[in-house]
Design the sequence.
């Protein structure tokens, strides 16, 4: 009897493993057919558990792809796929988590070589409270931008996530972002425009005791040649402008009101070796006012010999100046995160020498928003930079009068020495500021 039972069991096992299985029907229409042809009055009850993490493969290893279960916590059916457990399946329950990068709002203006910021909204549907890690995605195509958001959790159902966009686009065209949140991805783009191209007006203050004004100074002809070199500054240059227009303003013979008018009709105001006596209190106040309005870009050469030259041994525009003198020397530049020692024409490393002669000034105090980028030999501050103001305690670094001057023997290139890189980076900073303000 035992032998017969084994034989019958073997036959049954063979039938099950080599043919379709029908439960309630003798005509199985698939590998498994659960049907009573005329009396289907019972449903299929799936394996039920409170979490997908409790479902396992009895043979060991990962759960088999295609495994289905009923999640009693989320009240829905789920299936195990190649990427893991799906979201809820089923009509009227949850159609699954979907990211939508196309419909969310994009804010901000994005222009080549100009620091940009804004936001992008990513909408989603069918979420179930999933948590997600902090997001930081660098742009491709046009590089230089980053989309970021802190870690968080999705709402149940529909909602949105706001990404912060920041950085400086490396060119014009399309910046692409692929966002991955809780296992789902979507892509959005930002169109990067070209910067505005127009003439930039440079106003130099005269009379300049050292012929160092930038408009027509005798010893700034090499400096002007760098600005007038179209490969540096031009419609197809590194900095996009149609060119520079130069003018001067006589601070000695004109009034404070005329100074205001001249500044309002210029873009970059350049002040070199000007006698402090020419800047009456009224004119100093007017210049201070225009700097604080932040509509124009200003450069001040603080050659503070015995306090006789502007700004003098005094306070001006939130800065305090004093006297410091040394002879011929290669000063050291201090690397910073936002000073003009870094820029489109090159990045000067820590300790890169800047050639100076007769340096006679220092900045003893400056606003918290400013950055020191040149130090004197005793460690005091020689030059500072803020968003619309650069103050340097020596003008010889950009003149070509004496052999020890920064531009003596230089050329129209913006990369022939460290002084050239610094000078052109300052002007790149100035041009971008005036084009965006």
Sequence:
């Amino acid at each position: 009897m035992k032998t017969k039972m084994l034989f019958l069991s073997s036959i049954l096992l063979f039938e099950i493993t080599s043919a379709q299985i029908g439960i309630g029907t003798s005509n199985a229409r698939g590998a498994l057919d659960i049907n009573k042809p005329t009396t289907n009055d019972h449903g299929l009850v799936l394996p039920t558990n409170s979490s997908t993490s409790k479902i396992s493969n009895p043979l060991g290893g990962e759960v088999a792809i295609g495994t289905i279960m009923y999640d009693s916590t989320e009240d829905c059916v789920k299936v195990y796929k190649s990427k893991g457990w799906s979201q809820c399946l089923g009509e009227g329950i949850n159609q699954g988590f979907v990211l939508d990068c196309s419909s969310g709002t994009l804010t901000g203006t994005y222009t080549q070589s100009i620091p940009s910021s804004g936001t992008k909204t990513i909408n989603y549907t069918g979420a179930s409270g999933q948590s997600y890690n902090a997001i930081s995605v660098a742009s491709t195509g046009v590089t230089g931008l980053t989309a970021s958001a802190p870690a968080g959790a999705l709402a149940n159902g529909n909602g949105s996530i706001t990404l912060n966009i920041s950085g400086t686009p490396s060119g014009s065209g399309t910046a692409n972002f692929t966002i991955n949140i809780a296992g789902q991805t979507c892509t959005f783009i930002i169109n990067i425009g070209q910067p505005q191209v127009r003439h930039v007006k440079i106003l130099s203050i005269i009379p300049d005791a050292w012929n160092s004004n930038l408009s027509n100074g005798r010893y700034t002809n090499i400096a002007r040649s760098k600005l007038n070199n179209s490969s540096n500054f031009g419609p197809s240059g590194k900095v996009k402008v149609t060119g520079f227009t130069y003018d001067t303003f006589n601070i000695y013979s004109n009034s404070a009101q005329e100074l205001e008018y001249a500044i309002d009709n210029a873009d970059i105001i350049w002040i070199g070796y000007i006698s402090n006596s020419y800047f009456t209190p009224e004119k100093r106040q007017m210049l201070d006012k225009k700097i604080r309005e932040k509509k124009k870009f200003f450069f001040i050469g603080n050659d503070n010999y015995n306090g006789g030259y502007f700004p003098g041994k005094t306070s001006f525009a939130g800065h305090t100046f004093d006297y410091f003198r040394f002879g011929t020397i290669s000063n050291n530049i201090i690397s910073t995160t936002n000073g003009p020692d870094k820029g489109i024409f090159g990045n000067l490393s820590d300790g890169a020498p800047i050639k100076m002669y007769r340096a006679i000034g220092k900045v003893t105090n400056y606003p918290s928003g400013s950055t020191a980028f040149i130090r004197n030999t005793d460690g005091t501050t020689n030059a500072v930079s803020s968003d619309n103001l650069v103050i340097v305690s020596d003008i010889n670094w950009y003149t070509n009068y004496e052999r020890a001057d920064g531009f003596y023997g230089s050329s129209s290139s913006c990369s022939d020495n460290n002084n050239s890189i610094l000078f052109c980076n300052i002007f790149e900073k100035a041009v971008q500021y005036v084009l965006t303000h």
About this structure: The radius of gyration is 36 Å.
